């Protein structure tokens, strides 16, 4: 494999079963965690996703590892389905691959990120975001 970010992204995505925005909605209805890693500024611009938990990318692994002392209560097991979203679906792919390496085998991301969510006409919410520091 050649070096560079494109190769890293290709490698990360090879191990993911990525979801469309519509399949993401279905996965969340079925109990998947929807994790939003966008910045505050991106969320202000694009809106918040219904049911999403906001976790900063810098602490993502600690919050989602069921064995971590710093996990969120919803991180109940390594078989929990987790769908990550970012603005366009790039950093979320890398983050999902990192979670799989950690043992969260059902971690994946949403194709196209929140840009694709909005393009599909899916809703945002006016409720305060569920931000987990």
From TrEMBL:
PROSITE patterns, per the entry: RHODANESE_3
Q: Give the top-rank taxon of the lineage listed in the UniProt record for this protein.
A: Bacteria
Q: Where is the Rhodanese domain positioned along the sequence?
A: 28-126
Protein's recorded name:
Rhodanese-like domain-containing protein
